[in-house]
Write a structure and sequence with these properties.
The complex is a heterodimer.
Chain A: H1 12-18, H2 22-31, H3 35-48, H4 50-59, H5 64-81, H6 94-115, H7 129-137, H8 146-172, H9 176-182, H10 195-202, H11 206-230, H12 237-250
Helix pairs in contact in A: 2-3, 4-5, 4-7, 4-8, 5-6, 8-11, 8-12, 10-11
Chain B: E1 5-6, E2 13-14, H1 24-33, H2 49-55, E3 59-68, E4 71-78, E5 83-89, H3 98-113, E6 122-128, E7 131-137, E8 141-143, H4 144-150, H5 155-174, E9 187-190, E10 195-197, H6 202-206, H7 230-233, H8 242-257, H9 268-271, H10 276-285, H11 297-312, H12 315-321, E11 323-326, E12 330-331, E13 334-335, E14 337-341, E15 352-359, E16 362-451, H13 457-463, H14 466-499
Parallel strand pairs in B: 14-15, 15-16
Antiparallel strand pairs in B: 1-2, 3-4, 4-5, 5-7, 6-7, 8-9, 9-10, 11-14, 12-13
The chains are: A mainly alpha, B alpha+beta.
Amino acid sequence: MSVSDLEPDSTPRAAAQFANTHWSIVLSAAGRNEPERTRAALEKLCRAYWPPLYAYARRCGESPHDAQDLTQEFFARLLEKNYLDAADPAKGRFRSFLLAAFKHFLANEWDKARAQKRGGGKIVIPIDVQTAETQCGFEPAHELTAESIYERQWALALLEQVMTALRQEYVEAAQTKLFEHLKVTLTEARGSIAYATLAKELGTTEGAIKVAAHRLRKRYRDVLRREVAQTVANPAEVDEEMRGLFAALAG
Amino acid sequence: MNTLRVCKQCATVLPVGAPESLCPKCLMKIGLGSEAGQPKDQTAATPDLAELKILFPQLEIIELLGRGGMGIVYKARQRQLDRLVALKILPTEIGDDPAFAERFSREARALARLNHPNIVSIYDSGDSGGLFYFLMEYVDGVNLRQMLSAGRMEPKDALAIVPKICEALQYAHDEGIMHRDIKPENILFDKKGRVKIADFGLAKLLKPDDEDLTLTASGTLMGTPKYMSPEQLENSHTVDHRADIYSLGVVFYEMLTGELPLGRFEAPSKHVHIDVRLDEVVLRTLEKAPGRRYQHASELKTGVEEITRLDQLPPEVRAMLGFEHKSKRMVFGMPLVHVVSGLDTKTGKMRESRGFIACGGNARGFIALGRRAHGVFAFGAVASGVFAFGGVSMGIITMGGVGLGLFGFGGVMLSLILGCGGVAAAPIAFGGVAAGYFANGALTWGAFTMGRNSHDQTAAAFFGEWEAYFGVIGIIGTMLSLTLPSLIVIVRVAIAKRLGIAKID
């Protein structure tokens, strides 16, 4: 459970713990030429963050089907071929790296790859067009640039990871119902939460609900930070990344 | 069908893929609003002050007092009553055990019954919002651990503290409640120097009876092994209140010597200048087998107090309190020699000596010497027996100041056969003043008298040549009656000196 103990400071201890985030592993393993470790960590990240790429591709004018092909092929190559030469550890963020690599791929390789699908069409990260379209196709803010859409989708993908993980925690603790009822308290203003109603629904006291809500909020924050940390290599960057993501959502 | 949903808070449109159907912008905002996330505390998910303020509106939470395996304690003030209290929150993970709530309720009621000046009182308990808590008396002071860290304790302080703890323990044991975790951290002193024991019974509450010693999340043993009795460490099922006595013994030892009694430890008197008799007391509490320890805390208290009480008295007073020597050799079912001195500490009355040779106090024996003496040969202020010598004597042959008997020789003799003395009243009487059937004396009264004022023929014939002798015997008797008390005193002092005590009464 080392990842959950992340502290947002730059002490040596924090740095050591950060060594276990996916992105840190990728960077360090790639540097040491450990393809297996690199691949494993990278794959985890890619599974979570394909939607922003798809959205980007779509915003660039690709059809749904093409966007699907494109993204899938990109991942295949990324994982096989180690595009990590392009990764500059100093930048330290997976988000920027991924987009840069994707752009590179689009500019240089897609034309060629279109013709000959690598690995005989083997799909490493499956992308379902229906889901993709629902999630990333319909976007109210059409005037946004592709990059902005990428960032926004990235934030959504991150939150999706967070909520999935959070829900999973409660499911494992046999508190699914509690989660279902309490999750709304995360975004509601403190003053307007109907604790009494919730208490009644859950058959417990108002006080208990308040505490549970408080705990949920705290846990959410911890998980959020943890997931953000997965995509950065430096503890000091977590706050900045979060602010950037918020801006992306706000815009 | 595309329905647009709008977030109530920020009025932005919810994207279709919104995570858990919540507004992502608000989610992110909440995420940003936090301070640095705290590392997961391994011993307890610490309830923060905000949470406590919600849960305990009737309290003003002032500060965190301490944290341990038993929970977290806050200093607080009851607003309505305007008094300081201690709020103890039990570790949150225990709430996961469904049977716990029931045990908690039971235990809390038991603890609430404990009402003793040396036990920290429980004011209230319950579970608020899933957190189990106790509201307790706030003790403004330090605990014994802090005192020990600050410097070595004087033996006399330790000896003053232990009896108080014994009182509290005995009280609780009588109520059927064991502490199970007596240690310096749980012994508190308020600013007035009163001793108070805290955390009674909590060890049992947090560890149900039949389980093995549980490890908390951080891997520390519940309870404190250094102070736990052997039977507790073995997790024997026969742990009873005597385990508390052992733990107190460890604390006692540590107070006296500054060290823990580990392995082959030395008797306390070797470490510090205390009465050697205390060794026995301390070592008895530290017996491995519960059956060999003091069986009740009150016994330990008595043991300590006997020694300390005597220590505080001046030697003359101590002498009054008593001495006893009983010889092992038995004669006719009683000790050969039994010497006592002083008053019985329990009753305050004169002691008794019983033996073939009994000496001191109320003496009974073949040869009895004492303030009161009864026996074959009895010497005393009041003596009775076959040969009774004393200030007041009764018996067959009586000698002394006042005698009542068959044959009396002494000061004032009332005899049934022969009386010889300063004043003699008897069938045959000799003396300065003689009254009797046959009376011979300076002043006489009787049937047949001879003396200064009379000279009876029958009397003269009766007394005959004995006259001179009886006269002498009378004088001897009188002299004896004067000297005997001093004689007795001399003898007693000699015996006392011999036995090395201040004096014998």
